[in-house]
Amino acid sequence: MRILLTGATGFIGRHLVASLQRGGHTVRAALREEIPVAPGVERAVVGDIGGSPDWRPALAGVDAVIHAAGIAHAGPDVPPERYHRVNHAATLHLAHAARGRVERFVFLSSIRAQTGPSSPAVQRETDDPYPTDDYGRSKLAAERGLAEIDDLFAVSLRPVLVYGPGVRGNMGALIGLARLPIPLPFGALRARRSLVAVETVAEAVAHLLTTRDAAGKPPAGPFIVADRVPVNVGEIIAALRAGQGRRPGLLSVPVPLLRAGLSPLGRAALLERLDSPLVVEGLRLAQSGFTPSVSSREGLRRLGALLARRRTDGEQNRE
Fold first, then answer.
1. Which whole number is the average pLDDT over 306-315?
2. SS3 state at 163
3. How far is the C-alpha of 71 from the C-alpha of 45, rounded, in Å?
4. pLDDT tens digits for 180-219?
5. Which end of the chain has less neighbouring CB within 10 Å, N or C?
6. pLDDT in tens, 107-149
7. Can you give the pLDDT at residue 163?
8. In contact, 61 and 35? CB cutoff 8 Å
9. E-strand spans in 125-274?
């Protein structure tokens, strides 16, 4: 297939490019401007996706679209109008341009289209969605808009917190902590969270490009994607450090003491994020025949080993 990919230079997009090329597909990257891309990738400069670009040249000869571009985080620094323009309106603008032209349209949504940053109950696609911020609401609005477009086989993928080489944000900060040569006071944090390896996200996208339901039609609606078993913060740290050949190095400091110590530093909110549950169950992907190829513990261990090798190689190159 020839696939138009937006967000090809982002964290998930770079892994999608590599995965799709390994699968024998031709990737055409939709770019804001002329910038270097991976070897073998076609370029299509479309400008700002939030500016209603003309998608027709980029879509010429394309079999499928993977829309991974958008504002990838929730935060008070992003005005609601920008979420709407980039995550919602721009998605539907591209989808309408692709209508009747492509075999499949895969939208990279988010678990935040379904729930807030934490949930006391296991989340499934069959649950009613209740996003709690403008980021999640913009993703859900895009999903619902796609479902209303005739002559477009669109599917939405809802990843949980993604980890992998190059990740930033909260997961990147946690990986940075795990690399420190000191004990960490997170052994008492027990809240479990579902994570997903970026490789698994890429595999799920490739699966949704070709899978069909029992009636022989492309599947519709949202699909949650996550590793098989949720983990807590201590298990994340332990797995990352195991990949580096290190012991877990975790101290079981009571949560009230942690909170008292972090509050004067303005990091109490970080503690709340680390110790809040969000467990999901991707029923629809499983029913379609997809199984994640790696567990969180194994994926994090591999990531820790990769980062350790890169650090060692960097040190040797400097010598």
1. 76
2. strand
3. 19
4. 999 999 999 999 999 999 999 999 999 999 888 766 777 7
5. C
6. 999 999 999 999 999 999 999 999 999 999 999 999 999 999 9
7. 96
8. no
9. 154-159, 161-163, 195-197, 221-225
Quick: pLDDT tens for 273-305: 778 999 999 999 998 999 998 999 999 999 999
Q: What angle do CA 225, 98, 66 make, to 5 degrees?
A: 25
Mapping DSSP to helix (H, G, I), strand (E, B) and coil, where does residue 18 land? helix
| Helix axes of 233-243 and 169-178: crossing angle, nearest 10 degrees | 60
Q: What's the average model confidence in pLDDT over 75-95?
A: 92
Which residue is listed with tokens 């993928």? Answer: 157
- Burial call 189-210: b when 16+ CB within 10 Å, e when fewer: bebebbbbbbbbbbbbbbbbbe
- Closest by CA position to 106, among listed 56, 150, 142: 142
Long-range contacts of 180-183 (CB under 8 A, 24+ apart): 182/249, 183/249, 183/250, 183/251
Measured CA distances, 291 to 35, 136, 196, 221 (Å): 35, 26, 12, 18
The tokens describing 221, both together, are 């609606």
HSE of 71 in the Cβ direction (CA atoms, 13 Å)? 27
What is the spatial distance between Cα 292 and Cα 283, in angstroms, rounded to a whole number? 12
Q: Which two tokens stand for residue 138?
A: 């913009």
Task: Give residue 245's region: left, alpha or beta (phi > 0; psi -120 to 50).
Answer: left
Domain 2-160+197-225+280-293 sits in CATH at: 3.40.50.720
Rounded Cα–Cα distance for residues 64 and 41 (Å)? 15
Q: Report whether pLDDT(316) > 50.
A: no
